[in-house]
Amino acid sequence: MPEQFEETTVAVSGPRLHLGCPSCGAQLVVEASLRTMRCPYCAAPNVVERPPAAGVPEPVFALGFALTHVAAKEHVARWLKTRSRFTRSGIRSAEPGEVRGVYVPAYLYSVLAHSRFRASIGEDYQEQETYTTTENGKTVTRTRTVTRTEWRSLNGELKGYVADVLVTASTGLRNDELEALEPFDLRGLARYTPALISGWVAEEPSLTREQCLAQARQEAEERVGGRLGQFMPGDSHRELEHESRLEWEALDVCLLPVWVLAVRYAEGAPPLRVLVNGQTGEVHGKAPISVWKVVAAVLVLLVLVVAGWLLAQGGGR
Amino acid sequence: MSTAVPTVAPCQRCASALEAEDLRCPICGLTTPPPVHGAVERETARVVRCENCGAAMEYSAEAKAPRCDFCGSVTRVETTADPVEQAEVWLPFTVDPAAARAALMGFLGKGGFFRPSGLAEEAAVESLQPLWWPAWSFQAGVDASWTADSDAGSGRSSWAPHAGRTRFDFENIPVPASKGLKVKECEALAPHYQRGSAEGAPRGPEGAHVERFEATRSGARRTVLEAVERLSRERLQQGVIPGRRFRNVHVAVALSSLHTTRLALPAYVLAYRYKGKAYRVVVHGQDAGVVLGETPISGWRVAAVVAGVLVLLLVVLLVMGVFGR
Ligand SMILES: [Zn+2]
Ligand SMILES: [Zn+2]
Ligand SMILES: [Zn+2]
User: Fold this and answer.
1) Which of A58, B159, B204, B222 lies at a 20 to 30 A Cα distance from B196?
2) Total beta-carbon pairs less than 8 A apart between chain A and chain B
3) Maximum distance among all alpha carbons in chain A?
4) Which domain holds residue A228?
């Protein structure tokens, strides 16, 4: 039953393409990693079509941009203003620079997961307990109700579909960055057609299918683990272990809308990379913390503590 | 109507029925086979042109669609449609309005003890509305994984954990979609329909009203899935999970071959007035023996019963007092 992936995968790297612009006939030099290119002579939005090659799957789906250029910039400006006071100076007042809309390739994975689990289930019960205590200098015996837990082992199964797993297929967007931008509303999914990416930057997958498949399986396993945690009976559980058999795997390339921008906040410092979910407006970036600001804050705090201590000592004398 | 729609092959992974516009299976998420298009022979650069004016066309985030900047025309892209669909299968009325009226009279005359005498004679029927109410009907194979605590095999605690996996087959399970009828009424009417009498068009008394489906396709699927989970949970507690008392019942379902039909089911809604107050009664459109509704309660009779019970209680107490001494 499980679907076989027989095709071998090669990383997308290759020579640049030399293509004629269908609008003006000029020679276009297209990077192998890109799917679109605007003609430098006539500004025509070209979409590159390649014959099917082993390991370079065609996009099946695309999620169109729903957030405009202006809105993306506003989201970032608001995000910058709300950063912590300890970020490096200049970040909170930085102006978002050039924003680029990029269709980033990702794999959309779904599977039928058949898991077997083993766990120790805690069932609580109440018991009367006698104990001795001292009251008014005398030793007396009293009883009290205590809650105890009876641990029982449980084996079982959980079978279900895990759909909507997204993993990056681009070296330009790390998977943890994609996770920070998620969720995408997959109800808006459209069947890929060149018109969806016309005029925008669209990347070709740059990670191999095997790499992405491994990542997707891991995410599916994590989801099953999360489901199992919710699935346990009893008042508590521990030692939950599971192993899953993944059947009927399906993996399709989906282009995701991401606004990318570099924020320059200081001379000489590398620009801060900020990503915006092109559908929901979720912003992700790692604003660097200023070491000096943190050290200064710690010093001020220390001085205050010492001063307070000295005052207290002075008052006590 | 349904003959014109091209049949769509079911999902290859879970065998559930798919609509023509589904990009992915709504049950298991498997991508539906894309329309076949010829692959390009060699690398080419292509400019997407406006079908209207021929200008180069770009995707617009404002329009959320490819839009031509010159003439403003927008191209539709293929997405998962979520329409509100109407009934595809109609069950005919086999009870005519006169029979429905008679059924109401029978219902009023039959009377329980608390019904005022002469109700059938004094009640004035104000309206009689034949209507088709909407419902989904589904069939599905359900692979239900479950865990629960029950009293079976319990030790020191009164609960012991259990787990298992069970297969259920659901066939012709009705799920009401009516906003006009109460859920209880729908549930009481549903089992009495002759499913074999299904037709492709409405057939019934003149002026029969058709209550429309209001849920979208995705809303309908959600409701059906909720029904599958609820029914699975019920069935598990009727002999599958060992024991007699349960708690923490967790059910996870993996569906296969889900198929949903949109039904229009016949019924009469009658309103009558008794002593200035309006009451509503529903008569089944295919079985006049099924009459649901509210009836007035005779205040005198209730008072009489309460008084009778009190007197009886008093007598019992007295008797016990006498013998106790
Ligand atoms: Zn050109
Ligand atoms: Zn399916
Ligand atoms: Zn145009």
Assistant:
1) B222
2) 201
3) 106
4) 2-123+151-286
